[in-house]
Structures are given as C-alpha cells and as structure tokens.
Amino acid sequence: MSKDADKIFDFVIIGSGFGGMCCAYILADEGYSVALLEKNIQYGGCLQIFSRDKFILDTGLHYIGGFDPGQNLNTIFHYLGLADKMKFHRMDENGFDIISFSDGRKFKHGMGYENFIQQLVKDFPEEEKAIHAFCKKIQEVCKQFPIYHLKDEQAENYLDVEVRGENAHDYLASITNNIALRNVLAGNNMLYAGVKEKTPLFVLALIFNSYICGSYKIVTGGAQLIRQFSQRLREKGVKKMNRHKVVSAIYDDNKISALKTDNDETIYGKKFISTIHPSATIDIFGQENFYPAFVKRINNLENTTSSFIVQLTFKPYSFPYLNHNIYHYFTDDVWETINYSGEEWPLGFYLTTPVPVKNKSFAESLTVMCYMQPEDVAPWVNTFNSTVHPGSRGDDYEKFKKQKEELVIKKLETLYPGIRNSILHVYSSSPLTFRDYTNSVNGSIYGILKNSNSPLSTVINSRTKIPNLYLSGQNLIFHGVLGTSIGAIVTCFEFVNRKKLMEKINSFSQLI
C-alpha cells in the first residue's frame, strides 16, 4: 500500500510531460489535491535531460515559439509562474530558422510577419504575392482556433472539418509553382513530422505561427524548465511520485477508485487524467471499459515517425554558437526525407546548438535530429531501457548506433568541413529510447499523425466512457510545449469555470 493510501486525491494524473505538469498546476491552483505520477526517475517527458562531459543535453526541448511579450506561450508561462524564474535567449530575428540544401542554397525564416516576408522576398522577389498569401492564410487558420489565442469563445470546437481537411502540401502547391519556395515554406516540417499526402495545413499553421511570433531558446533547456516547474508544483502542494508506473486500475461501480503501480502501490483518487498516448491508456484501464469504436479507431490510427538523435559535445572554443536552427536537406523535396532507404539515410536533419553557459560565441554541444522509422530498430524491439537499467540492449544495438552516428557525422562534414576535429564525444538515442522514456507508441516523436484525408478520425476528446477518466497530452490538441499546455487548459475546462480560468490566465499577458 502507498504511504498515501489513506488519502484520496481529487485528481491523479498519469504522466509528467509538460501537459501533465500543466494539468497538475491548474488544478492545484484551483484548490484541488493532486498527485502526479511518473514512471521514470526524471519528470518532464520529452523535457528530460542527461548530463555528459559536464554539459546538459536536451532530449526534446530545443526552442519555443509564441514567446514575445503578449503572445500565447509567454502569457501561459507567466500564469504558471515560470517566466520570471527562468532565463530565455531570443533567437536571430532575421533568421531563427535556416532552410538549407546540399547544393549550398540557404533561406531564412524571419521573426514577425513583416520581417518574415521581407527575408523571403530577398530570395524570391517574383513570389512576393505568394509569400503574402501564405502569411495571410496562416493567420486566418490560427484565428479559427480561439483557444490557441487564449480566447474563450467556442473553445471546445476549435476547428471545423473543412479546416481540418485542407492539406498543407496541396495548399502550398496552390499558391505558387515555384518548387523552391514551396520547399522553404515547408522546410521546418520536422517540427511536426510532416507527411506530404496527410499533414493538414492547420498543423503547419499553428506551429509555424508560434515561431514567427517569437522564437527563443531556454538557457540550460529542459533542465531549467523541469527544475522550476517542479518547484512551482511543490509550492502548490502537488504530490509528485516518480518511479510509479501505472499498470492497472481498480474499479468501483464502473468508476475508477484507484491505480495500481508496478511497485505494488495503490493510489486512490476521485478523478483521473491520462496524458500518455490513448493506446497506452487503453492498455492500462482495459479496452472493455471503452467504447469498442473508440478502441478500434485508436488502434488503427497512424502515429508520426520516430527519430535518431545524435548529441555531439565539443572541445572548448572549437565550434561557433548558432543563434538559429538549421533544417538541412540532401534531397530537393523536403517532404521526402521521411521516405529514405539504405545508405542514403539521412536525407535531412535538424541542427541546433544550446545556449552556451561559459562563452557566448562558442557552442558546447550540437543536437542533430534525423527521421528514423521504428522498423530500423526492430531487432531490439523486445528490449527495454530505463534510467534504472540503461545500456541493456546488447552489443549489436551499440554497433548499430555507432554506424548511424558515423553516417550522420559524414553528412555533417559536408555542411561543416572539419567539424570532426571539434568533437569531444558522441552520444545518440533511437526510436526505442523515445519509446521507453516517453511511453510513446514505437517511439513516435509527436504522437498521433493528423490526417487531412480523414480529419475527424484523429480528433481526441478529453472525456472517455469511464465517467471519471479524462485525457490530455500531445494527442489532444497538438504537440510541443505550447500544444500540450493548451491541451491541459482544454482538459481542465471539464472541472473549473472556463471563463474565470481564461480571465486568470490572460491577466498575466505582458503587453507590448
């Protein structure tokens, strides 16, 4: 029995990713007693970090958007009590993201819509009309999602079927015949693991808009965010429980009364929120307790691909700090990097350097993210890693990782000749790492793939058939720090006065 077995929490939340932490904060701030359960040692989900060579390396948090004063994430961070507790670094406003190709072409995404247009018109002067049309469309799509702008009206009906069904690739093709411009406008699609035939325009719009409206890096990344958010949750009285993997539920008259963990503890609650993947939620609570149509739909949904991440630490003062991200492609079609085969992998990668702690001019590390399909690590699918038992997949797996690391470094050298001489150490993670540390299906980096061909199939409601079980997390609205925080707000509408909550959050808006 848990030492808290005699206490019945108002809410028990499964999963301590950013969405779970936000749900915990909102509910505790409203006066409820809350328990937050995490299966790993570290809290934070994709915010988890690890330390190597005395450097802190991030696993999933590299930069945030919508963080200029008055923007949505800036307001949310002030409401959560995080903005004044942390250090942020604004990225290059004239090119926070650079889209580059193996033939040497480079294109900049600028911050602010006027600047965004100005930067692209330099390279595509004949396409000014199309660039203006793109920006207007992105903002129009975002306006149809009130809760994205922290507005109360129609918050539960955040997008209609017509908007959900518009395809991103097809829209870009409709505004310009210039293939290079299409690729540049879709060049950051690793942010949402875009699939040409399926990714809806609204996914591109919601994510792209946030970065245009203020791109920042968090100094020391996820480490600082986890530490400060954990402190805020403690101040609010949230009971945080790591190493508590939920394996089953106890029912009383069709309602959940408690959760059982893998260490045979029992956590009692009145209401429960699962922020993990819906399929993992079904496994825990028993598919017989959900509508059969819901179970079938979830099991048939496609998930976004996974990734292979290489972390390089550098010798002192040997590699410049980049105050921008780079999306680099070895193919002329940015949508095709997901469809690699054999030795051509990777067809593209995302590069970012965390904000240096010691010397602002030189990077201390570099993160390289490449797409990787779960099938690539199929030989080790039945092995499991954790912070308790790391490195347990065997020599063949380590050899596989080393081979992939070398392929990445060779392609990095085409972009940065001589970079190998700057490297101190190399570390990497695979789809299995994501699967085990974030509880995502097959290591999916962004959860369920939104599909413009079947727009309603990927809509997940926060309510379930089980009367006191609710859903949140990256699959509810969209992924990332912004997406999961908005999802947490939507879930909490079930329990708190929506109008008052939105007024409270917006009272923290920092006016420009």
List keywords for this structure.
18 strands; 7-stranded mixed β-sheet; single chain; about 30% helix; FAD/NAD(P)-binding domain; alpha/beta
In short:
The protein is an alpha/beta fold and about 500 residues long. It has 3 domains: about 10-85 and about 220-300 and about 450-505, 3-Layer(bba) Sandwich (FAD/NAD(P)-binding domain), CATH 3.50.50; about 110-215, no CATH class; about 305-445, Polyamine Oxidase, Chain A, domain 2. About 30% of the residues lie in helices and about 20% in strands.
Write a structural description:
This protein has 512 residues and is an alpha/beta fold. The protein has three domains: 8-87 and 218-299 and 449-506, FAD/NAD(P)-binding domain (3-Layer(bba) Sandwich), CATH 3.50.50.60; 111-213, no CATH class; 305-445, Polyamine Oxidase, Chain A, domain 2 (Alpha-Beta Complex), CATH 3.90.660. The chain is built from 15 helices and 18 strands. Strands 1, 2, 9, 10, 11, 12 and 18 form a seven-stranded mixed β-sheet that branches. Strands 7-6-14-15-16-13-17 form a seven-stranded mixed β-sheet. A hairpin with a 4-residue loop joins strand 11 (255-261) and strand 12. Helix 1 runs parallel beside helix 14. It is globular, with a radius of gyration of 22 Å. It starts with 7 loop residues before the first strand and ends in a 6-residue tail after the last helix. The mean pLDDT is 91.
